[in-house]
Amino acid sequence: MKLSDEQIVGEVVLGNKTLFASIVDRYQEKLLRYATYLVHDTDEAQDVVQDSFISAYKNLNGFRRDKKFSSWIYRIVHNMSMNSMRNRWRFLPMLPDFDWPSGQDLEEEMMYKEKIKMVSDCLDNLKLKYSEPLALYYLEEKTYREISDILRIPEGTVAIRISRAKKLMKQICKKQ
Amino acid sequence: MQKTIKNEVMEKVESGAIKIRPKIYFVLGGLFSILGLVGSLLSIIYISSLGRFLLKSHGPMGAYRWNELVAVLPLWFVPLAIISVALGITLLRRFDFSYRKNPVLVLLGLVLTISIVIYAIGVLGLDEVMFRRRGPRYQEQKPGSAMQRRRTEHTPLFVVEASPEIEAGN
User: Fold this and answer.
1) On chain A, which terminus has fewer CB atoms closer than 10 Å, C or N?
2) Do A58 and B97 touch (CB under 8 A)?
3) Which candidate, A86, A50, A55, A62, places its Cα nearest to that of A13?
4) Does CATH number 3.90.600.10 belong to domain A97-176?
5) In a 3-state reduction of DSSP, which class is residue A91?
6) Taking 80 as the threshold, does the pLDDT of residue B97 lie above it?
């Protein structure tokens, strides 16, 4: 039987440290993609994700088990990314050769990469306020509720921002 | 790259270099955060009330009353307020790390809200209505007051009135 994230956290807190590895396994790829999207630098994103896992482990007792673990860990990555960007004092453009792992065959992967690049280029021209909920919704496949938990904004605001972001994306992508 | 993240994290976890903070840490953190918030709230009310008193016209003997007020001020409250504000903000940052909160904005919001409420109370004269001070005569006559109760206790249940014949000595 596959344990849920919350159950694993319960086990880790009880002393089964090694189970934390399965949490890392489940989330590292997604979180790395999300952090890279936010900080626009793969090395920095790696540091952010690593620090986030360490921070999450230290504060596992502070996690409320009635909430979703995924929203909690995404929130930590969001905060760590914001701190990292604030420390850097400037925003770097998305690296053109950034690789989004997909696990598909070569031709499909090429098309996928092209599509992602196009979307990324459009997203880069959006304000973070709009692009982040959009990325969480489409790239990370999060629900409005989860995005609301991650970004600490009401669900209504999430819906409005995503709707505006889509309209802005259309305009930007048409121009390009 | 991803293997490195897992390896590095698990190495620290298994070697004991990083440890899970005990639950009490978070309970105390939450408690101190609330205390800090309450402390800052009280200090803001306290300081704004003083400011309001200073700005208001005090009538005759105003300076004397001000001096009296300053003389009875609990001065320990000022460092306590400063410490509680600092503690509250620090703990909010440390224990509630997964929530994005701007402590400066939280504090500013608090100050602004309380200032507006105090100003509104002053302008509308609600303080005169809510906290009206009455003299000792009012306290005596107020229903349910100790003096009133004493009076009721000593009032006889019935009064025997002398008949006109008795009064006339017949």
Assistant:
1) N
2) no
3) A62
4) no
5) coil
6) no
B36: its two tokens: 């800090």
* pTM for this model (two decimals): 0.61
How large is the ipTM? 0.70
A162-173: pLDDT as tens digits: 999 988 888 887
Searching chain B, which residue's CA lies closest to the CA of residue A23?
A: B6
The letter for the amino acid at A157 is T
Residues A73 and A27: beta-carbon distance below 8 Å? yes
Of the partner residues A13, A24, A76, the one whose CB lies closest to the CB of residue B98: A76
| Chain region(s) in chain A for CATH 1.10.10.10 | 97-176
Determine the residue among A57, A98, A100 to mutate to test chain B binding: the one whose Cβ has the most chain B Cβ atoms within 10 Å: A57
Cα-based torsion angle of the residue sequence A108, A41, A28, B3 in order, rounded to the nearest 10 degrees: 90
Range of the domain at B28: 2-124
Per-residue pLDDT of B147-163, as tens digits, reads 555 555 555 555 555 55
Average confidence score pLDDT of chain A:
83
* C-alpha to C-alpha distance for B42 and B77, rounded to whole angstroms: 10
Rounded CA-CA distance B106/B111 in Å is 9
Stretch 139-158 of chain A: residues touching chain B, C-beta under 8 Å: 152
Using a 10 angstrom Cβ sphere, with 0-12 exposed, 13-18 middle and 19 or more buried, the burial of residue B153 is exposed
Interface contact A20-B9, CB threshold 8 A: yes
pLDDT class of A29 with cuts at 50, 70, 90: very high
Q: Which of B5, B7, B19, B102 to mutate to test the interface with A (most CBs of A within 10 A)?
A: B5
Please give the Cα distance from B69 to B49 (Å, whole number). Answer: 12
Question: Taking a C-beta distance cutoff of 8 angstroms, is the pair B8, A28 a contact?
Answer: no
For the record, the structure tokens of B141 come out as 């006559």
